[in-house]
Design brief:
Elements lengths: L1 H31 L18 E12 L2 H6 L1 E2 L2 E2 L2 H4 L3 H4 L4 E6 L21 H9 L3 E3 L9 H14 L3 E3 L5 H4 L3 E4 L5 E8 L20 H14 L2 E7 L10 H12 L4 E5 L7 E5 L5 E5 L4 E4 L4 H4 E12 L5 E15 L7 E4 L7 H12 L6 E2 L2
Parallel strand pairs: 1-4, 1-13, 4-5, 5-6, 8-9, 9-10, 10-12, 15-17
Antiparallel strand pairs: 1-14, 2-3, 7-8, 11-12, 14-15, 15-16
């Protein structure tokens, strides 16, 4: 009888435990059915499908003879030590654009400075090292060494796999829109035009070698670019030299661009900084306008001409607005070409020069008077 009771007790205990295991299993199944996120997988409106890339632009790269002489080495020319402090701000963007004002025709054509520039090819190599992806070539010095200067320069840009726009070797090349396709899925067209070429004319029948500011031509190119790219950046070489504010012609051109749906205008030629602004197009679109980014790297001596800037902004494709690409998060790094460092000409972040603290604040105030929300990279 005692044995029977013990067996009966064990059987009851087993059945009880078995029921417990069954209940726990059912409970786990119930738990696993609970959502692990507050986002409903069926509700696509709660997910951000927007795409975003960053663009950086710098102003004039103007290589005077005194600059390349300071960069000369036993093996050629090396400008990298004179610019390397800016590398973190240029190499980190999706696309970085530089205005290469002096043609890199190389030693073959005879190196020279103002007024008819011809620069060492090494400045192109060093810009590539810094993180520059595109050079704009339409400016008043494009024809300083004629078509030979353009041809030599483009051959070297192609050799180092640098994208370029604004000057060309052939008519066919000039008719192609430069479109930069990014892995993020946003394509960017980059156009470049100049007000003139210091009175130097292109050879007869070869006006295509440099893009000039002509409204009909620009309108056609912008329309073509809109068919090929999600965003358009327009590089304009215009304005009065050494003037801290844009003239009426600059404002009219920028409005012309905004009315045609350009995403951003990057300006240069005044060799000094001019304020940034938002310009509204006729369709209600908002375009970023940087009238002049000043000199990034040059041998010009007076203080205002030593001040330049690195402009960075993001391009965001908005899924809720028919995939329109808009400029967001504009930010700025003020630069200064110093002769007080290890090198005779050296581009440095202005905010890192203690003796220029007061002048730095003046430049910030100047840049933001029409765009108070502009941030500074400090």
């Amino acid at each position: 009888m005692g044995l029977f009771l013990r067996v009966l007790g064990l059987s009851i205990l087993f059945l009880t435990a078995g029921c417990g295991l069954l209940n726990n299993d059912e409970e786990m199944k119930t738990v696993n059915k609970q959502p692990t996120s507050t986002v409903d997988p069926q509700d696509k409106s709660s997910i951000d499908f927007s795409k975003e890339i960053s663009i950086t632009a710098i102003g004039d790269v103007l290589i005077h003879d005194r600059v390349y002489e300071a960069a000369e080495t036993s093996e050629g020319y090396n400008f990298m030590p004179m610019m390397e402090q800016t590398e973190p701000y240029l190499d980190s963007s999706t696309i970085t654009i530089a205005n290469q004002e002096t043609m890199i025709g190389g030693k073959e054509l005879g190196l020279s400075g103002y007024p008819a520039f011809n620069s060492p090819v090494e400045i192109g190599n060093n810009l590539k090292e810094l993180g520059v992806d595109v050079v704009t070539l339409a400016n008043n010095h494009t024809l300083d060494k004629g078509t030979r200067g353009i041809n030599n320069a483009i051959e070297h840009w192609e050799k180092i796999d640098m994208k370029y726009t604004g000057a060309y070797q052939s008519k066919e090349d000039s008719e192609e829109i430069l479109v930069y396709d990014t892995k993020e899925g946003i394509s960017v067209a980059i156009l470049s035009y100049t007000y003139g070429t210091n009175g130097v004319k292109a050879p007869e029948g070869k006006s295509y070698v440099v893009n000039r500011i002509q409204f009909d031509k620009m309108a056609q190119d912008i329309e073509k670019a809109k068919q090929q790219a999600d965003a358009i950046i327009l590089s304009l070489h215009f304005g009065n030299q050494y003037e801290p504010y844009p003239n009426q012609s600059q404002k009219d051109l920028v409005q012309f661009a905004a009315d045609r749906g350009v995403t951003a205008v990057i300006g240069h030629h005044p060799h000094v900084l001019q304020p940034l602004d938002w310009v509204e197009g006729k369709e209600g679109n908002k375009m970023l306008a940087a009238y002049s980014l000043g000199n990034f790297f040059s041998g010009q001596e007076s203080f205002p001409k030593r001040v330049g800037g690195i402009l960075t902004f993001n391009l965001k494709m908005d899924k809720d607005d028919n995939n329109q690409v808009k400029v967001v998060k504009p930010r700025f790094k003020v630069t200064y070409v110093t002769s007080a460092g290890e090198h005779e000409y050296e581009v440095v972040p202005m905010d890192e020069v203690p003796s220029l603290k007061e002048e730095y604040e003046v430049q910030k105030e100047h840049l933001t008077q029409w765009m108070p929300e502009l941030k500074f990279m400090e």
